[in-house]
Each structure stands twice: as structure tokens, then as C-alpha cells.
């Protein structure tokens, strides 16, 4: 593997970083971090990953793309901040709160009763034979399951276990409905269930346990 060792980062939290324990102390939400074009920047990177997934470049083109990417990486190197103050994960006006690592979703309804979201698995989420990779489906369930737990509990929760039952194939590039809700809770334990539908068709189901973090818990 190359690349990782070359990366610059300044991800150490500072004394003023708004975090406590393993997650943010509060549900930090913003619409301004990263500026008005941040969402479009993330979207362009997703589109690029879609193209990389299916591209078969000539050696010359691959070299050209590498040079362009090096320049882009150098640009972003000048702006790195710690995870607690980066826009990613806090921009509630953007798909998946601006977090590029998540399949893009939009929350249609979210509250203590549960979360109802529209998710689209992109071309780069391909598993095989034109449908989504099961790991990416689990990522979507994890984030939106954690959100259901956090919105019910009023504080962050961490996944203790997460089981996905894959009931039918999950298509790419199709708006799907993902729902999560706390089925039962007991102390810090939130038993969360979830479903993923393509229209009326059930693609997958989730059964998970999210534990609310104690203040300061790593
Ligand atoms: C309109 C929209 C608005 C939106 C607004 C924005 C809101 C945004 C909000 C949110 C979105 C973000 C959401 C993100 C979600 C992602 C979450 C992740 O992926 S987390 C990373 C993966 N998970 C780990 O790395 C955990 C590793 N494990 C641990 O850290 C610990 O084991 C932990 C915290 C899970 C539990 O440890 P302990 O020390 O706190 O608690 P102990 O005492 O061990 O367990 C508590 C109880 O739970 C049971 N328990 C624990 N683990 C269990 C297990 N695996 N199975 C069954 N029971 C378990 C225990 O038996 C105990 O039960 P008894 O109280 O005695 O009844």
C-alpha cells in the first residue's frame, strides 16, 4: 500500500474542540462549515469514485489523473482540521450530513419515534452483478440506526452489535427507503430495528444494539 504514509494531517483535537468522550458532546449541527459549495465538492468526489469504479484508463491517462489528484490533495492539505471541527458529519443540510464515507441519504423524518430516510447506493457501492455490496448496506443501517438511538436517548450511542438480514438484492442508483426505530430500551441499551425497501420490496432488515455513552466515555 502506498499513499497513507505521505498524507499530512492535523487531526489532533485542540483544547477548544467541542467533544467529550468518543463522540461529540452535543449533536453538533451546522449548515455553514465548509461554505456553500461544500456539498457540491463532496458530490463531485462521489461522481469521481463512480467513474473510477468503472473506468479502464490507458496507462497515460492513469498517470495524468494521478498528477491531477496530487494537486487536489495538496490543495486540501492546506485546510485540514480535527474531526470535531470539520464540516463532515455536521452539515444537516447535506446528504448524510456531508459525510463522504456514507452512502448519501436524506432524512425525511427524524425524531424519538425513529428515522425515515431516502438512501441511494451509488455506482461505486457495487458489490457484484449490478447490485449493492452488503457492507455498504450495513454502513447505512449503522449510521441511521445510531441516529434513531441518539434521537430517542438525547445523547450519542455506540453500536454493540448489528445484524443485517439480506432479503433480496439492493439496487444501485435507485431511491430506497430506509427506516430505523428503537424497538425497546433498557437503561443505556437501545434495541434498534431497521428496514430497507425498494418500493414494496424488502431488500434488507437490521437488528442492532446501541449503547448510550456515559459522559466522557471514550
Ligand atoms: C432530522 C434529523 C436531524 C439529525 C441530527 C443529527 C443527529 C446525529 C446523531 C447521530 C448520528 C450518528 C450515528 C453514528 C452511529 C455510528 C455508530 C458506530 O458505528 S460506533 C462504532 C462501532 N462500535 C464500537 O466501536 C463499539 C465498541 N464497543 C464499546 O465501545 C463498548 O463495548 C460499548 C460502548 C458498546 C459498551 O461498553 P460499556 O462499558 O459502555 O457498557 P457495558 O457495561 O459493556 O454494556 C452495557 C450493557 O450492554 C450489554 N452489552 C454490551 N455489548 C453487548 C453485546 N455486544 N451484545 C449484547 N449485550 C451487550 C452489557 O451486557 C450491558 O448490559 P447490562 O446493563 O448488564 O444489562
Automatic annotation (TrEMBL):
GO annotation terms (biological process): fatty acid metabolic process
Source superkingdom: Bacteria
Organism: Gordonia sihwensis NBRC 108236
Region (Disordered): 1-37
Family in the record: Belongs to the THEM4/THEM5 thioesterase family.
Protein's cellular compartments: Cell projection, Ruffle membrane; Cytoplasm; Membrane
Pfam families, alphabetized: 4HBT
Keywords: Apoptosis, Cell membrane, Cell projection, Cytoplasm, Fatty acid metabolism, Hydrolase, Lipid metabolism, Membrane, Transit peptide
MF GO annotations: hydrolase activity
GO CC, alphabetical: cytoplasm; membrane
Lineage: Bacteria, Bacillati, Actinomycetota, Actinomycetes, Mycobacteriales
UniProt protein name: Acyl-coenzyme A thioesterase THEM4
